[in-house]
Specification:
By secondary structure, this protein is mainly alpha-helical. It has 2 domains: 118 residues, no CATH class; 167 residues, no CATH class. 46% of the residues lie in helices and 10% in strands. The strands form 3 sheets. The chain has a 3-stranded antiparallel sheet. A 3-stranded antiparallel sheet has the order 4-5-6, with no helix packed on it. Helix 5 packs antiparallel against helix 6, helix 5 runs parallel beside helix 11 and helix 7 crosses helix 10.
Length: 293
């Protein structure tokens, strides 16, 4: 049975892939080596929500048993965990996990997980999380564009990604102007206005999707994005992943300096929720578009 518990592991020290027994303890230097899996690994657990919980960093069963303490998405969409955590994988799960173990991966670690797990840094990484996901999205689009499977539908409008990320300031006080000018407007400018109307229309043409309404009016960028995504994942899923971006667009419009709703008090909590939802939207759109590869 020992061979059933051998996995391909990428050494953190040398970046070399090794085939090692993950059922026995290793030295402290190797405990955080990376074990990569095809993302299909999660299907078994995601499709039985009454029995399993697949969180952002773990898999656990609802009977309270922790299946896998570390479970993160790499930059290329692969799933990875730390070698040490396979020691505590339930016996019955080893063979299933082996089916999806990858003997190579060019995926990079999630920087938020790395900072937390390796350096015990528990600061807020909301913006860093969005930045990392947008970089992955942009890299994927470049690969798809080179293969002529899509046009360059998203890119930062001005100043580059890092500069625009730095302009987004999560409110630290319940102050309306800071929420609107320092958070909503720069976030919408980066994420929503980064979608290029001309390129989206070219993609729509490639997948034979109309970019006008029944009365001949041109659709907006998010509406075109949603219609194009429908061709990849279906109407319900496409609507769900674009919904946070539409919500941000509505909130931005309502809070514009030219009028709209009255200021709200709970802008600190609201801004964190919006940023989390928008980041999740980019993650989901990226996953869907990986199906084009």
């Amino acid at each position: 049975m020992q061979s059933d518990k051998k996995f391909w592991v990428r050494s953190r020290k040398t970046s070399v892939m090794m085939f090692v027994d993950c059922s026995v303890a290793c030295d402290s230097e190797s405990e955080l080596d990376l074990v990569f899996f095809d993302p299909e690994l999660l299907t078994r657990y995601q499709f039985i929500p009454c029995k399993y919980i697949v969180g952002e960093g773990s898999i656990e069963s609802k009977d309270g048993q922790l299946m896998l303490k570390s479970c993160y998405e790499a930059s290329n969409g692969d799933i990875y965990c730390y070698r040490y955590d396979l020691l505590h994988l339930p016996e019955k799960e080893f063979l299933y996990f082996k089916l999806f173990n990858l003997n190579s991966s060019d995926g990079e670690e999630n920087p938020i997980a790395r900072n937390r797990d390796l350096y015990c840094s528990f600061d807020d990484f909301e913006k860093e999380g969005l930045s990392w996901r947008l970089k992955n999205f942009q890299k994927l689009l470049e690969e798809l564009r080179k293969d002529k499977k899509i046009t360059g539908i998203w890119r930062p409008k001005e100043g580059g990604l890092e500069e625009m990320i730095n302009e987004i300031v999560l409110p630290r006080v319940q102050e309306y102007k800071q929420y609107r000018d320092g958070f909503l407007l720069p976030l919408a400018r980066l994420v929503i206005e980064g979608f290029v109307s001309k390129e989206l229309r070219e993609w729509a043409s490639m997948v034979e999707v109309s970019t006008t309404t029944e009365d001949g009016r041109e659709l907006g960028t998010l509406a075109i994005l949603k219609k194009c995504l429908v061709t990849l994942c279906g109407e319900s899923e496409a609507a769900g992943v674009v919904k946070p971006l539409e919500k941000l667009q509505r909130e931005k419009s309502a809070r514009s300096s030219h009028g709209g709703k009255e200021p709200e008090a709970a802008v600190i909590e609201k801004s964190k929720d919006i940023l989390k939802e928008v980041t999740k939207s980019i993650v989901d759109i990226t996953k869907i578009m990986r199906g084009l590869k």
